[in-house]
Amino acid sequence: MSPRRRLEQPSLFDLELDAPPASGPAVGEPTPAAAQAGDDGVPLRSRLYAGMVDLVAHVAVLAVVVLGVRLMGVAPEPRDLPAMLLLLLVFSLFFTVIPLAFWGRTPGMAVLGLVARCDDEQPLTFGQAARRWLAGLLTVAALGLPALLALRGRSLADRLSHSTLREG
Amino acid sequence: MREYEPLFHRRDEAGEDLDRVRDLFAAASEAYLSFPWSWMVWALLLPAAALATTEVALRWGWAGGLALWSLTILAGGAVELLGIRRGQRRARSSPLAGWVLNVQGNLSLVALLLSLALIAVGATAALPGLWLLLLGHSFYAQGGLAFPPFRGYGLWLQLGGAVALWPRGVDPLVVFAAVTFAGNLWIGWSLWRARGE
């Protein structure tokens, strides 16, 4: 038996013969915790902290670009800003869409223990992940004002992508 | 059991294990390898960007080069996403695909740090060779498990990387352009054929 299979399958010592059979929601049915999170929504504070962690990563990339340019012996000028923003856009696309589509969370969401799921509890599709990214861009472009929508339970990203942020 | 039959079929078992792994990798990559056109688009975008880099950098400086490559990756990434969506209307990841991406992300980090180091010592001419070698390694090691032509593609990229790092008489960006043009066309064609089978 491979080590991985050993990890996934309970050994004889993990089984309690007298224990009642595991009961839980059927496949596709939301868990009680998920249903509660969906009803109450993730607190705005958690969403903001997750967004700030992601923002710090973007700022760090910008700092690395500036450092790299300086290492080349060139001082960045204001007219170079559009090129740097373009690079940041590319980084943002990969930094956001791929983790969301593959793991359901951006690094910032992972730090805060949040996960994005479809309204039907399925993992996000690539299209939904891309729409969450677009909503994030719109939120930053509008100086964070769309984030106030989350006070009513669903953020702009939730609404555009037909998905929900949950704790988990 | 016959007299000359070995007691333990180690080689056969290893072969079966590898076949199972290949099947799993092939299944996990199905949604991402169903659209040959994205490879054809990369076959045009990457060489075009590589051949334009020197001219753009001379005219608009480092910022021009940065913008050129950012736009190239953005355009290629958009086509790639479109392909994934067309390949599987509700394309979702699998744990194996996520694991592969995790490993590739780690390799990208290595590539980025080495790139910064090369820039710091003024050896920017080695950047195309470095990226060809690392990309080639990724396709050879992991891509080959999902789609056999990726093994040859990986070796092709690494051969190009070795040539691009040749110290004299070679323009690394021209080598990068030639290698990515031929390699991506070949993979696009291979996918096209595989789809027809």
Folded structure, characterized:
- The complex is a heterodimer of chains A (168) and B (197).
- Chain A has 168 residues and is mainly alpha-helical.
- Chain A is built from seven helices and two strands; from the N terminus they run αααααβααβ.
- A two-stranded antiparallel sheet of chain A has the order 1-2.
- In chain A, α4 packs across α6.
- Chain B has 197 residues and is mostly helical.
- The model of chain B has no long low-confidence stretch (mean pLDDT 86).
- Classes of the chains: A mainly alpha (168), B mainly alpha (197).
- At the A-B interface, α3, α4 and α6 of A face α2 and α3 of B.
Structural topology:
The complex is a heterodimer of chains A (168) and B (197).
Chain A: H1 3-8, H2 32-40, H3 44-71, H4 81-103, H5 107-111, E1 114-118, H6 126-141, H7 156-161, E2 163-167
Antiparallel strand pairs in A: 1-2
Chain B: H1 10-29, H2 36-87, H3 95-120, H4 127-146, H5 149-164, H6 172-196
Helix pairs in contact in B: 2-6, 3-4, 4-5, 4-6, 5-6
